[in-house]
Structures
1.
Amino acid sequence: MTQNPPQGQAPKKSWLSVNALRRLFLWSLLLKGLDGVMELVGGIVLACVSRAAMINIVYAMTRGELSEDPHDFVATHLTTMASNLSGDSKNFAAYYLIGHGVLKLFLVICLLRNYRWAYPVGIFIMLGFIGYEGFRLSARPSILLGLLTAFDVAVVLIIYLEYRQVKSGQERPNLWGKMAPT
């Protein structure tokens, strides 16, 4: 239900059309869902693979690159990280990734189904992730984590804008084209 502007006034211009916002919302959720699946799979693999096997896998993956360039940034950091990973750190990382992945997938599914309660819950949880990522960035700066945090901030903004559309009473089809329960 869109409201017409009062007589004599031009319609309010939006910097982002409703359809473009919807597409952006769906794409950002699909990317977050893919990220959640990768975290879940990575966490399960990390939980199931021994520390020694993980070190061997990393060395096997980086051996060729390090033979060409012994100072390769990514390869040297991966081998150092694998060598320095303690059993407790490995377990924490595995459970963190599994929990993070499951939570992301749950939120993505609920948002794709247009459950109205999932919008503020998703924003709240994403802000928690952003807070933790900010803490990690302040303790140990990382370009990759900075980019992921910026993406999370953008996703929160997109969820908020989509939620405003939902709250305005406009019927929004879910990913499957059905109107969502509230």
2.
Amino acid sequence: MKNGLLLILYICFTQYIYAQQPKGFDAGVLFGLNATQIDGDAMGGFNKLGLRGGFYVQRNLNKKMAYRIEMAYSQKGSKRIYDEFGAVGGIWDKAISDYIEVPLLLKYHAYKKIDALGGISTGYIIRKKVENYTYGEASSDFFRKLESSFIIGVSYPVNSKWSVEARYQQSILSVAKSHFPIYSSYTNFMIHKILSFQLIYKLQQS
């Protein structure tokens, strides 16, 4: 229900922008790969890979700046690694946390073909799962429904239609509830950290 409402609001917003400010407007799709970790799970490294995809609308403010709003599906979480001695730390083997996100970004033409971008994002969790290969499936109830995060990155246009982007994203507040008894020996403060690499394809420009 909430995801459907977000989609309706997003479509209405993009149609409003296109109707009111047609000049300097463009829209398109984005898809790429996340490398993720969770600070606070007693593991390190961006070991869990996930997909990221969605669509965007962008409005040019001037020759140097533009603002963009996106709606994207983003797979996050963390994954334990093993060496020749067995598991390397960690609370679980894998934590899966998939979100529908709405980032609001400001884009700045920094140098030649390189653009810098930054902003904030709100995400709603639509899938959560914790896997522990010794004890089976553990509780994932500690995940909060909403996540707030900041984003910084760079963008490089390959041609008039395609661009490549690299981003760093991090939760602003803990994604874990204040109390989850199964993992009480560890910290209750957990944040997502994501390295994203994605392709942007421009569908429409005016």
3.
Amino acid sequence: MCNNVVQFGAKILKKKTKKSLLRTVRITPEINEILQKDAQARRMSVNALITSIMTKYVEWDRYTEKFGYITISKDLFTSVLGAADNARLTQAALELGGRLPKEVILFFFKDLNVDTFLAYMTLTCKYGHIAENEVETQGRNYTVTIHHDLGKKWSNYLQHFVGQTMKNQLGINPKFEVIQNSLVTRFVAP
């Protein structure tokens, strides 16, 4: 989901990253067997798999656990989304978009700006599995494309959530194109 945007998150994390270190850990034979099997299934080394697991912890889990994030199945989410009234979804998107991203971004990155907002979107997409996103830039002009398979209600929710955050927290008035399973956001950075 976040191939192009990962660069924003990586820029922010690279400030703290140094060369790799050798670390020895003890694991049970059962964990080792699972790691070997999963690494083989993903066509990667066990070291690469463990690194990706640890990276997810560093970039996502250690923060989201403190914010009460939960993991639910896509079926449960789509069922709740389908049962929700459009007006209530919009109201929830505006309310949450007005406060939650700012709280999370400041907690994660200690600064709120276009780069940290895009890094937040990237991490939320990458680890929260809410969509796939790409960011294209030309100078100060940005185009953010968010693609998912959750239907028009989710696209509308994202429009209001992202729009509220950008207006209230970044002082940006984005332009949106809402499609069945996509949201295209265009804006000029300050």
4.
Amino acid sequence: MQEFSELRINAYRESLDVLCSVEVTVLSKNVIEAIEERRSVRQFKQDPIPESVVNRIIDCGLKAPSAGNIQPWQFWVIWRPSLKAALAEAAFGQEFVGQAPIVMVVLAEPARSATRYGYRGSELYCIQDTAAAVQNMILAALAYGIGSCWVGAFDEKKVSKALNLSERFRPVALVPMGYPAELPARRPRSCRPLEETVITVQ
């Protein structure tokens, strides 16, 4: 990936319905490096993340594939300390959620997928689609030197109540993000044997 000193982009913030031109810091990693180096980060510096970088991360989430290009998602970017604390409580007391500079809340909209794909759309496709968006944003964040943690352990009803969500949305992931206070040790990952996880048919 070619590096640039500055990159001018158009970043769309869906949650705020704002389109703007912003300056974004140069990417530091290509996608393969980001995949290989990604670690869950739970300790964050309190340095603010530039809004232009947050916008770019969101833009990468919006570019995720989705069944029928329906894009059954909504992304909430939570900066407010009181809401972050409520999300940490909803996440069964995982305090690091509330300590991150921002928390990205990724919502699925099952009914939107169901309009074309019925039950399978509402129960599977919208979950697959939002998961792809989460992964895009986590890798994009890492490319800008920002750590994150994909949190799936939370009470959906409490998250919905904290954000006063419409019933048509289902919380899928909480993703606290920030510059790492310390980088997790890079140790060999324990992987299942290839013969159990990869089947090749020629």
